[in-house]
What does this fold into?
Amino acid sequence: MSNALPPFSAKLLSSRPLGGGMRELCLEVPDEFCRASRPGMFVHLKVPDAPQHLLRRPISIMDLEPEDNLLVLGVQPKGEGTRLICSLREGGCIEMLGPLGNGFSLNDAKTVWAIGGGVGVAPMLYACREFSKSARVTASLGFRTRDMIFSERDFHESAFRLVIATDDGTAGFHGNALAALSSHPLPDLIIACGPTPMLKAVQEFALGHNLHCQLSLEQRMGCGYGACLTCSCRTMSRDGEEHYARVCADGPVFDAGKVVL
Amino acid sequence: MSNALPPFSAKLLSSRPLGGGMRELCLEVPDEFCRASRPGMFVHLKVPDAPQHLLRRPISIMDLEPEDNLLVLGVQPKGEGTRLICSLREGGCIEMLGPLGNGFSLNDAKTVWAIGGGVGVAPMLYACREFSKSARVTASLGFRTRDMIFSERDFHESAFRLVIATDDGTAGFHGNALAALSSHPLPDLIIACGPTPMLKAVQEFALGHNLHCQLSLEQRMGCGYGACLTCSCRTMSRDGEEHYARVCADGPVFDAGKVVL
Amino acid sequence: MRLSVNLCGVELKNPIIPASGTFGFGREFSRYYDISRLGAVATKGITPLPRLGNPPARITETPSGILNAVGLQNPGVDAFIEEELPWLIQQGATVIANVSGNSVDEYAELAETLDSTDIALLEVNVSCPNIHAGGCVFGSDPGTIRDVAKAVRAATRKPVLVKLSPNVADIAEAAKAAEEGGADGVSLINTLTGMAIDLKTRRPVLANVTGGLSGPAVRPVALRMCYQAAQAVSIPVVGMGGIMTGEDAAAFLLAGCTAVQVGTANLSDPMACIRILEELEHYCSQNGIADVNELIGGLIVE
Amino acid sequence: MRLSVNLCGVELKNPIIPASGTFGFGREFSRYYDISRLGAVATKGITPLPRLGNPPARITETPSGILNAVGLQNPGVDAFIEEELPWLIQQGATVIANVSGNSVDEYAELAETLDSTDIALLEVNVSCPNIHAGGCVFGSDPGTIRDVAKAVRAATRKPVLVKLSPNVADIAEAAKAAEEGGADGVSLINTLTGMAIDLKTRRPVLANVTGGLSGPAVRPVALRMCYQAAQAVSIPVVGMGGIMTGEDAAAFLLAGCTAVQVGTANLSDPMACIRILEELEHYCSQNGIADVNELIGGLIVE
Ligand SMILES: Cc1cc2nc3c(=O)[nH]c(=O)nc-3n(C[C@H](O)[C@H](O)[C@H](O)COP(=O)(O)OP(=O)(O)OC[C@H]3O[C@@H](n4cnc5c(N)ncnc54)[C@H](O)[C@@H]3O)c2cc1C
Ligand SMILES: Cc1cc2nc3c(=O)[nH]c(=O)nc-3n(C[C@H](O)[C@H](O)[C@H](O)COP(=O)(O)OP(=O)(O)OC[C@H]3O[C@@H](n4cnc5c(N)ncnc54)[C@H](O)[C@@H]3O)c2cc1C
Ligand SMILES: Cc1cc2nc3c(=O)[nH]c(=O)nc-3n(C[C@H](O)[C@H](O)[C@H](O)COP(=O)(O)O)c2cc1C
Ligand SMILES: Cc1cc2nc3c(=O)[nH]c(=O)nc-3n(C[C@H](O)[C@H](O)[C@H](O)COP(=O)(O)O)c2cc1C
Ligand code: FES
Ligand code: FES
It folds into this structure.
């Protein structure tokens, strides 16, 4: 039964600034990690050399190059933990647990909208890359302002079509990443990750149009692997009963129809 | 009244291994620091990048080169704090408070025994250097074994005479640093720093021979500058009354006749 | 080296037990290691009926600690017996069922319900700070502790551990109350009630406002309370609170604990219990200790 | 920006006060900065007669915390009045005299002795965990708290703060007891009793065996207790426990404190209080707060 990859130490191969204060970290990961990874999954990072930070930090897989055992993360230095993670030097190591979570499911969708907002743009890159193998993926990425845009070129490469939106209109569509798609034909599947108001809008839109839709949520986490029940989000079963699901293990990706935002 | 040097950040100019697992750290310090320093004083070092370690670590001034604003410390990685201090990289900075404490007083002594044991050897170097300007200093340094010896050459340079002792006889005199001096003529003053059993022996010897003697003590410390009363050692006043003195501010150097070990 | 200890008549392979609420019912950990290697397993707190738990956020980090307010989310005792316990037994785990009730009667009923099952011990949590019985927390009153211990003791043949709250003025008194009530052992500490504020939103970080503090931050308090409890009673003490390493575990044994539980460390690292077990073994062998029982109560106090 | 607050009728320049026992009588700090810049100064705990204090070791570090067992070493109230107070007043400090007694009568006598001096407030420490009155700690019993508050209130015209122990089951009750006794305010928390063991010697690290835990490790507990105390009483609350930054200070103000004290931070850094004051000012200006009083009790709880 002991089949999960225990925490391991990953070497930082390169670290460079992306747009918007984010940092791109390229890490060396073992084969088992690559084999188990799917878009929408995350890793749980120990804050390096900081035992006072007991909890790990969840960070989405932004990209993966299995041939080179390369994991790419996009990290926004938000508080002390992500700041320390971002200041790790090339050649240094970080302790990692993962890949964790359920990830997005393409099922048989042929057309996909991948909607990302802010830091939630990161996991969409890996999703675009993977899902583009068998579907037409339109990526719609929302940022606060032009300076916050990151990884645009990578999305250009990996998505069928790329739409950029900014809240202040300094680049691309003036408005949010969902509204930016209003003139586009409806897809078989919407996947989305970003701030809650954005997810709510996507959820409402998808339910209203009866579209398959998967939302990737964020929640404060303890263990990251399903044991502590601290990362809950409200879900509604068919019969209207409410439950708390675990974002780390039952998610972070949830069916738009089941999750209460 | 605000005349004490506030905590400052000192740059690590070089770091190299001494003998016995000790590390020599050379740090850049301001002029005011150099002006205020005297042998037997110490600095109080913040453990770098480790906010969970609230307390600073007291480390003796091992040497000082005022012309170059150079402070030399000899640090034994004992626990986590000193280990982190020793692993600081050249070019990095460490937050420092000091110089603190009272230091040794040569008064008018013309002949001095400077007895150091283990890590307590470190402050003797600065004392030898300074006191040799107007006195004949015989340094007697005790180590557990040959491999623990450090800074021998520096002592050769700075002391009038150097005696080395090892507990196991692997180098120099076989025995402790006090016994190693038994054939030497008695000095005007003994200064000593080292483990408590050694200090006790020195104290007994000095009192027995009616010699001026100053002992540098160690104690767990909080503030390091006299405010918290946590670093106490027992002292006896003339009238036989017991008190607790502050090792950090009333010491670390005490008259052998006044301190109860 | 001998690592096994006898806890209230139950032989444990070793003194390392994952603490309630940080180990689920073991399933997630069995993906990382063979959970039968542990001394025992303390289950997530079980209540008579299923509980939804508190709304999120339920956890936040504090300096060298964490605050949690899960609020006893669990599937209820029946689901535990049907779905979780058989699986645990099949894994070869020695099971400590951690139970919580809202009244003395509920505790007694839980004990009775579990009496006929394969659990090894019952751990009676009189101290969860995240649920309230009539506004006040159960476990801070010695009288209530005694009553619960008595009622549970009468309702089951299993050995009973009473898990004590640290939110009391006198832990020795609390431990004695449990002993008087007939407990076979006490375990402590549960979490200290705490709070965190988000300076940006000016709101409490946790939806429940307060939560339970655990982790290394509380270790000095936990160690002191375990020491005082062990001095006060003659039944075994199971110690916990901030144990992150084998040396931490050894400190609790020295203070008088027969076994220890590891909570928050599991949240940092799924392998924590196994690592701590190996480190404890290493500490013993480095210090010439052939039997871990030599450590128990071995603190030298002048 | 307005930083001044009114504490029990005393106008403080700002809400930052060094905590008792971590600031001596201010002399050491005056070498680093002008201590009249502080809101007030809480003195080292004063007893009727001089006290030697506990044998060393008196301090040790714990994860994000420290344990101390100074044992109220102090020169006694007479020496305080003759030697320390005049100097403090000359510096322009607003002085809070922190006092400790072994009985209700001793507290009353101390209050009376200090009544005719230039102190601004009296802080009655009913909670020092490192001295014992007949085996049990004074400050954990609401009845005693009320009695001490009453006796002190009757013995002086100075405003009286009662400093509460966190080693209680119900801090709200303790705060109410102080209020009922006539206290003009409460201050909290004093230290949580804890312990550390040296794994090499198998002995307690502190000669006193137990000590008082303080620092960021206890902040969540302190913040919770201050919040609960502020909810429970209508007199001002002075908060402390692990305040290391201006944001930490702001959190305590939001929780309902009128002023805060800074203890352990002084041990890490002689400039701590001044830095915290500047950071608090910065936090206010960054958040459009023109008067620090806007923060007090400003926590939003749904
Ligand atoms: C599934 C998932 C995927 C994520 N992917 C990314 C990513 O690819 N890139 C990225 O930059 N960020 C991502 N985040 C958000 C990231 O985890 C937080 O920004 C980070 O944990 C903040 O830690 P901190 O120490 O910097 O901040 P602090 O605010 O100091 O953290 C304090 C505590 O709160 C938790 N916390 C604070 N904010 C969040 C949050 N938004 N979500 C979860 N926990 C939080 C921290 O983990 C920590 O335990 C993701 C979050 C989740 C849940
Ligand atoms: C005046 C003075 C001068 C010193 N000079 C030197 C020196 O030049 N070189 C050197 O290597 N060491 C010196 N020491 C000892 C040094 O301070 C300790 O080895 C160091 O504090 C241990 O910290 P740690 O984190 O590595 O160990 P830990 O044991 O993890 O420390 C835990 C706590 O105990 C305190 N502590 C532990 N041992 C001692 C000790 N022996 N003295 C004081 N506090 C202690 C630490 O400061 C810390 O607060 C001196 C001590 C004093 C009092
Ligand atoms: C997330 C979480 C959930 C917990 N749930 C329970 C519980 O259900 N029942 C219980 O008795 N204790 C519970 N506890 C308390 C722990 O079992 C333990 O007493 C406490 O965390 C102290 O140990 P630690 O510092 O090693 O975590 C929980 C602790 C945490 C962190
Ligand atoms: C070294 C030390 C000595 C203390 N002495 C006293 C004292 O004499 N009287 C008192 O009321 N509190 C005393 N305290 C408690 C502090 O005033 C304060 O209540 C406690 O440390 C919590 O605040 P902090 O976490 O900021 O340190 C002392 C604390 C320390 C660390
Ligand atoms: S974080 Fe522990 S269950 Fe999700
Ligand atoms: S360490 Fe604070 S008085 Fe010496």
